[in-house]
Amino acid sequence: MIRWGFIGTGAICRTLAQAVGSLERQGVATRLAAVASRSREGADGFARWHAAEVPGAGKLTAHASYEALFADPEIDAVYVGTPHPAHAANALAALRAGKAVLCEKPLTMNAREAGELVAEAQGRRRFLMEAMWTRFLPATLRVREWIAAGEIGEVRLLQARFGFPVARNPDGRLLNKALGGGALLDIGIYPVSYAAMLFGTAPLSIQSAVHIGETGVDEQASILLHYPGGAQAQLTCSLRALVGSGAEIYGTTGSITLPQFFGPAEATLHRQEREPLRFESPLPHGHNGYEPMLREVLRCLAAGEIESPVMTHRESLEIMGMIDAIRKEWPLRYEADEG
Questions:
Q1: Strands 77-80 and 100-104, bridge-based pairing
Q2: From CA 225, how far away is CA 201, in angstroms rounded?
Q3: Is residue 182 a contact partner of residue 240, using CB atoms and an 8 Å limit?
Q4: Residues tagged active-site
Q5: 271-294 core/surface letters (b: 16 or more CB in 10 A; e: else)
Q6: What's the pLDDT tens digit per position in 271-301?
Q7: Radius of gyration over alpha carbons of the chain, in Å?
Q8: b/e map of 19-46 (b: 16 or more CB within 10 Å)?
Q9: 201, 233 contact by CB (below 8 A)
Q10: How many helices (H) and strands (E) does the chain have?
Q11: How far is the C-alpha of 282 from the C-alpha of 268, rounded, in Å?
Q12: CA atoms of 103 and 130, how far apart (whole Å)
């Protein structure tokens, strides 16, 4: 039985809580046992929501501080769902308390913080993984299988985009610099991570164009990654335009299209002189898509592994390094960059 403790009470924590509850109802040996907020009111409110909205949920311990949850001997694994700038400190504290850690993306604010976090996990032999749920979905796994089998030949080009217009609220998380706001860290990380997954190596060079909004964060960016052998990734992220979340992968003998690459339910394989092959994997009733990622965490913990081969420490470090390189040419620095 793996007992989860959640740090944070926002929307993403509620999504993960529903997924843990779904696995528990399926007979998987896991449950959400505790939640922590920076206030008693926040923790108690989440506990009431959990009792009302997660079918079959058991009693949830509500801690009025993160430190109390880290010290809770009834907790085996911690999910860090706090705002981006708090990820590094929260995950470090959980690791030092002897807990396994699943940390929401981005793993940290920059590569320096990510390196410190990975070193701590490896030094203590504690599990750590970035919560990039896209990696574990059946459609993503099928795409990787098609490519590994040579179905589209050599991959030469990825075009991926993720964008939607947000309310012009300067205090909202997405546009608030103090909360790690901006398109790249919040949604641009999905296409950047997808490129890292496909090409398996850091790019040789990076070019980008960005629009910095009135709150000082990136609201829209276009990114071009150049890989060994001439392969490229053309990526877009936006908090201003309804660009969707589609992706196309082009190879020397075929291509793959995904109407929604970051949370895919389908993918289509196109090959020369052959009918398109469509793969569909709709979510089962009661699922929200995060269950496969949680199953992988549980598998790793049962096997005594400190990282997942699907989302490795090395990849998280490389992705944060890529994001640092992209931002290097932008007039955008966060408080964490001054450390």
A1: parallel
A2: 11
A3: no
A4: 105
A5: beeeeeeebebeeeeeeebbbbbb
A6: 988 999 999 998 888 899 999 999 999 999 9
A7: 20
A8: bbbbbbeeebebbbbbbbbeeeebbbeb
A9: no
A10: 10, 14
A11: 14
A12: 5
Query: At 86, phi and psi to the nearest 5?
Result: -95, -10
Phi, psi of 291 (to 5 degrees): -60, -45
**Helix 189-199 crosses helix 138-148 at what angle (to 10 degrees)?**
30
Q: Calculate ∠ Cα 335-15-178, nearest 5°.
A: 15
171: Cβ contacts below 8 Å, ≥ 6 apart = none
Write out pLDDT tens, residues 170-220.
889 999 999 999 999 999 999 999 999 999 878 999 999 999 999 999 999
The two tokens of residue 24 are 């528990």
Distance between terminal CA atoms of the chain?
39
* The residue to which tokens 């009918």 are assigned: 275
Element (H, E) at 185: none
Strands (E), the chain: 2-7, 30-36, 61-63, 77-80, 100-104, 128-131, 155-163, 205-212, 218-226, 232-238, 247-251, 254-258, 266-271, 277-280
**CA triplet 313, 26, 138: central angle to 5 degrees?**
45
Task: Specify the DSSP class assigned to residue 283.
Answer: P
Residues 6+ apart with CB under 8 A from 3: 30, 31, 32, 33, 34, 74, 75, 76, 77
pTM of the model: 0.96
**Phi and psi at residue 29, to the nearest 5°:** -80, 75
Contact 90, 80 (CB under 8 A): yes
DSSP 70: H
* Residue bearing tokens 């989302």: 311
Distance CA 57, CA 94 (A): 24
Q: What are the phi and psi torsion angles at 156 (to 5°)?
A: -115, -25
3-state secondary structure of 87: helix
To which residue do tokens 């528990």 refer? 24
Maximum Cα–Cα distance across the chain:
63
